[in-house]
Specification:
7-stranded mixed beta sheet; about 30% helix
Length: about 190
């Protein structure tokens, strides 16, 4: 329960340039994510499509075994490679992702295969959630048929969907706000 995998394998197509290299408060989004999670998790890994990307980030890398399936590739590689019973996935483009909230989601998981936040409108955030090794076969099955949506994985396995109120004071609507477009980053700079 002490392993986090920071997802950094995306292509940033919507941003038009590598969004993880964008600087906020003196650190890149990626540096900030890794630094935050290092404070609370014993093991922090970087999930990448290319092992040589981000040479300045000093954590072990998990390279996609089956490239091209987005975050599903990262989860698959992490669960295949790491000995842990499960991993917490955190997208590097979630600038307010809170590692203490992550640990609380791991606790909420109980005996379920996964745990992720479900907002009152039904929206799921699969890239800030806990996944046990028991989802690996489902992950491989989905990849094999070209289904890469993490939300489909969450609905296929026994998932503990956490309501924001279960996070108590750890909940903030910014917790799962991600940066995909230039306008998203502009909002960050303004706040």
């Amino acid at each position: 329960m002490s392993t986090v995998v920071v997802l950094a394998g995306g292509k940033s197509r919507r941003m038009g340039r590598d969004k993880l290299e964008l600087s906020l408060d003196g650190k890149t989004l990626l540096e900030s994510a890794v630094s935050r999670f290092k404070q609370s998790f014993e093991h922090v890994y970087l999930s990448v499509a290319d092992a040589d990307k981000y040479p300045g980030i000093d954590v072990q890398r998990i390279v996609d075994i089956i490239p091209g399936a987005g975050p599903m590739s990262g989860l698959h590689a992490a669960l295949t490679t790491l000995p842990d019973d499960g991993v917490f996935l955190a997208a590097a483009d979630l600038p307010y992702a809170n590692p203490i909230a992550a640990k609380h989601l791991i606790e909420l998981c109980g005996k379920s295969d996964a745990c992720a936040i479900r907002l009152p409108d039904g929206k799921l955030e699969p890239l800030f959630g806990y996944y046990r090794k028991s989802v690996l076969a489902h992950c491989e099955s989905l990849i094999s048929v070209g289904e890469y949506r993490m939300t489909v994985l969450l609905t296929d396995v026994s998932t503990r969907f956490a309501d924001p109120c279960e996070l108590g004071d750890l909940w903030d609507e910014n917790l799962i706000v991600n940066v995909n477009y230039p306008k998203d980053f502009e909002k960050l700079l303004e706040s």
